[in-house]
């Protein structure tokens, strides 16, 4: 089943990926099972940010605390591939947990969505949410 993503979220991720280049940008995705309508840029705290990402743990804690007090629901995260296609790298596949999280990957001017499940990262089709 496809999920909807707002153009604001897509444009924000693409812009942040360009701004972070040649480092990887990363951040959090918010919404519901049917639509991603929020994102928040996070600091990439990985020691090798040109080739890896690690979302600032503080951003994750904040998102969980806000969710508990009625804030937007955390659905997943995104990161960019400055030098590669928007497909999971071997590292991404190794990192993915069987937790149902949505992964968005930005690369070559495109955004792809993936779902982390028991079979690893599987493509998650999406369409633009109606404005
Ligand atoms: Zn990656």
Topology of helices and strands:
Elements: E1 3-5, H1 7-20, E2 26-31, E3 35-42, H2 57-68, E4 74-80, H3 90-95, E5 102-107, E6 110-117, E7 120-123, E8 126-128
Parallel strand pairs: 1-3, 1-8, 4-5
Antiparallel strand pairs: 2-3, 2-4, 5-6, 6-7
Bound molecules: zinc ion.
The site of zinc ion has 5 residues, from loops.
Mind explaining what this structure looks like?
By secondary structure, the chain is of the alpha/beta class. The model has no long low-confidence stretch (mean pLDDT 96). It has helices spanning 7-20, 57-68, 90-95, and strands spanning 3-5, 26-31, 35-42, 74-80, 102-107, 110-117, 120-123, 126-128. A hairpin with a 3-residue loop joins β2 and β3. It has an eight-stranded mixed sheet with strand order 7-6-5-4-2-3-1-8. The protein has a single domain (3-44, 53-122), classed as Cytidine Deaminase, domain 2 (3-Layer(aba) Sandwich), CATH 3.40.140. The two termini are 20 Å apart. It is 24% helix and 34% strand. It contains three helices and eight strands, in the order βαββαβαββββ. The structure holds zinc ion.
Give a quick precis of the structure.
The protein has helices spanning 7-20, 57-68, 90-95, and strands at 3-5, 26-31, 35-42, 74-80, 102-107, 110-117, 120-123, 126-128.
């Amino acid at each position: 089943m496809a999920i909807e993503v707002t153009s604001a979220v897509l444009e924000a991720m693409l812009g942040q990926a360009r701004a972070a280049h040649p480092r990887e940008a990363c951040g959090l995705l918010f919404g519901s099972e049917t639509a991603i309508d929020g994102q928040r840029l996070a600091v990439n705290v990985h020691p090798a940010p040109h080739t890896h990402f690690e979302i600032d743990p503080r951003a994750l804690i904040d998102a969980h605390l806000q969710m508990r007090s009625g804030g937007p629901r955390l659905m997943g995260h995104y990161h960019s591939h400055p030098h590669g296609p928007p497909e999971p790298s071997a590292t991404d596949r190794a990192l993915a947990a069987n937790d149902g999280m949505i992964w968005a990957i930005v690369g070559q001017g495109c955004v792809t969505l993936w779902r982390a499940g028991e079979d690893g990262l599987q493509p998650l089709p999406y369409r633009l949410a109606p404005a």
